[in-house]
């Protein structure tokens, strides 16, 4: 009986113990051509056992990298891709610098400044006018989202002219849906909402539709009141 405690370390568990044993056997083959053929056979088997890798871009490159990793970089075969090294696979990426952007207009953000700069550099008048209309719509929408009220188009044009020094003017009337305070409560279906439904109890001692015990129900089978007598 062979226990896992006596076996070698399993480098990549997704491929299983048998793949690792096959790779260890390929390392011991002295004939280079035969070793190369067996390496291709193992690559095909690795792709068959892990079909999800086919959805990965350049999945065969990943299989070859895994083959050298399983062999602890001791396998001496030719690869159609650059052969990885232990240092290259364990190297840590360089830290990404945190983006530090200081927008000139905090209420509009940095992205709108990028769009404005691109619009000012546009030479095609139709595209430049389209940029101006889109910027005006975004400015009006941002004001509505933050202040919960609409802003007049003249105020939007005045601010756009101040930002671009009069180089951009929109010729459309950007429409933004008017904010209504009732929108915050329309989807509130829980208790305590503004539009909470109030149910009124039916008249009669029982208050039910099928009052079999008597007392003013619609189908009064046990009482003497014939006001709601059944019609056939």
TrEMBL record:
Which stretches does the entry tag as region Disordered? 181-232
Under the heading InterPro entries, the entry gives: DUF4290
* Extent of Gly residues compositional bias: 204-217
Q: Which Pfam families match?
A: DUF4290
Q: Could you identify this protein by its name? A: DUF4290 domain-containing protein
Species name for this entry? Lacibacter luteus
């Amino acid at each position: 009986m062979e226990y896992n405690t006596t076996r070698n370390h399993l480098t990549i568990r997704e491929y299983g113990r048998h793949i690792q044993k096959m790779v260890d056997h390929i390392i011991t083959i002295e004939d280079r051509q035969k070793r190369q053929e067996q390496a291709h056979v193992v690559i095909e088997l690795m792709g068959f056992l892990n079909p999800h890798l086919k959805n990965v871009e350049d999945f065969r490159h990943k299989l070859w990298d895994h083959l050298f990793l399983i062999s602890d970089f001791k396998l001496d075969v030719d690869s159609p891709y650059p052969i990885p090294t232990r240092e290259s696979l364990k190297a840590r990426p360089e830290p990404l610098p945190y983006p530090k952007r200081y927008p000139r207009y905090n209420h509009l953000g940095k992205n709108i400044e990028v769009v404005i700069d691109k619009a000012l550099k546009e030479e095609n008048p139709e595209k430049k006018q389209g940029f101006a209309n889109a910027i005006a719509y975004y400015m009006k929408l941002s004001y509505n989202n933050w202040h919960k009220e609409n802003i007049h188009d003249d105020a939007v044009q005045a601010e756009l002219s101040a930002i671009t020094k009069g180089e951009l003017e929109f010729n459309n009337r950007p429409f933004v849906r008017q904010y209504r305070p009732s929108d915050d409560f329309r989807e509130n279906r829980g208790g305590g909402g503004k539009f909470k439904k109030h149910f009124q109890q039916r008249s009669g001692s029982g208050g039910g539709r099928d009052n079999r015990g008597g007392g003013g129900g619609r189908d009064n089978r046990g009482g003497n009141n014939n006001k709601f007598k059944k019609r056939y």
